[in-house]
């Protein structure tokens, strides 16, 4: 079983939905999750499916609420063709009602989300982003680039592009 097969039950449960709502979550909502949002939006737009998906991002922490993504992430993303315009917001309990899939970037995010989930059923919506990345990349989480150099941001984008491509493929497979 590949890692993303772990989530086949959740993905199968979305079959027939008019719109699939995905929330990407990291700690600060200024590096990893707004980049994931930008990459996923680009994929669905290029496939002419902007209406089929609602995509957003949020942070478990609230230090940067209202801010655009970190300048370094915006620059690295722009070099790959992504224009990141999300304004930082914190995760709220209603996100568990409003979204179908809640994608955590690392174990810390996952734990925080789990403790916020209003019901056990809501907890099942939480998945790990790295479960969808190609196993050849050898990462079980999306590493926080905040205190890293350029390579950290490039690594995050490599992982996010792979994971978003595979997540989209899995979601399209259910029709
Ligand atoms: P992110 O990175 O979780 O990928 O947005 C971080 C951004 C800001 C902080 C930590 C991580 N911070 O401590 O302010």
Describe the protein:
41% of the residues lie in helices and 12% in strands. Strand 1 (20-26), helix 2 and strand 2 (53-59) form a beta-alpha-beta unit. With 175 residues, the chain is α/β, with parallel strands linked by helices. The structure holds 4-nitrophenyl phosphate.
Shape by Cα distribution:
globular
Q: What is the CA-atom radius of gyration, in angstroms?
A: 15 Å
Taking pLDDT < 50 over at least 5 consecutive residues as the criterion, the unreliable ranges are none
Structural class: alpha/beta
Q: What do the pLDDT scores average to?
A: 96
| N-to-C series of helices and strands | HEHEHHEHHEH
Strand content: 5-15%
Strand order of the largest sheet: 2-1-3-4
Distance between the ends: 22 Å
Bound molecules: 4-nitrophenyl phosphate
Number of strands: 4
**Helicity range of the residues?**
40-55%
Our count of helices gives 7
Q: Main beta sheet: strand number and arrangement? A: 4 strands, parallel
Question: Quick recap of the structure?
Answer:
The protein has helices spanning 8-12, 32-46, 71-79, 95-98, 107-116, 120-123, 150-173, and strands spanning 20-26, 53-59, 101-104, 126-128. It is α/β, with parallel strands linked by helices.
Question: How do the helices and strands line up, and which of them pair or pack?
Answer:
Blueprint: H1 8-12, E1 20-26, H2 32-46, E2 53-59, H3 71-79, H4 95-98, E3 101-104, H5 107-116, H6 120-123, E4 126-128, H7 150-173
Parallel strand pairs: 1-2, 1-3, 3-4
Helix pairs in contact: 2-7, 3-7
Describe the structure using short key phrases:
single chain, 175 residues, alpha/beta, four-stranded parallel sheet, 4 strands, binds 4-nitrophenyl phosphate
């Amino acid at each position: 079983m590949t890692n993303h097969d772990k989530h086949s039950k959740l993905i199968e449960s979305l079959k027939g939905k008019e719109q699939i709502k995905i929330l990407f979550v990291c700690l600060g909502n200024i590096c990893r999750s707004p980049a994931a949002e930008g990459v996923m939006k680009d994929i669905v737009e290029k496939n002419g499916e902007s209406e089929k998906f609602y995509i957003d991002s949020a942070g478990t922490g609230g230090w940067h609420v209202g801010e655009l993504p970190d300048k370094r992430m915006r620059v690295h993303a722009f070099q790959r063709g992504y224009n990141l315009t999300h304004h930082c917001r914190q995760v709220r309990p209603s996100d568990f009602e409003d979204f179908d899939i809640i994608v955590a970037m690392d174990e810390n995010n996952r734990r925080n989300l789990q403790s916020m989930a209003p019901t056990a059923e809501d907890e099942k919506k939480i998945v790990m982003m790295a479960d969808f990345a190609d196993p050849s990349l050898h990462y079980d989480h999306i590493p926080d680039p905040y205190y890293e150099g350029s390579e950290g941001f490039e690594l995050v984008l490599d992982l996010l592009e792979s994971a978003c491509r595979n997540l989209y493929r899995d979601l399209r497979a259910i029709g």
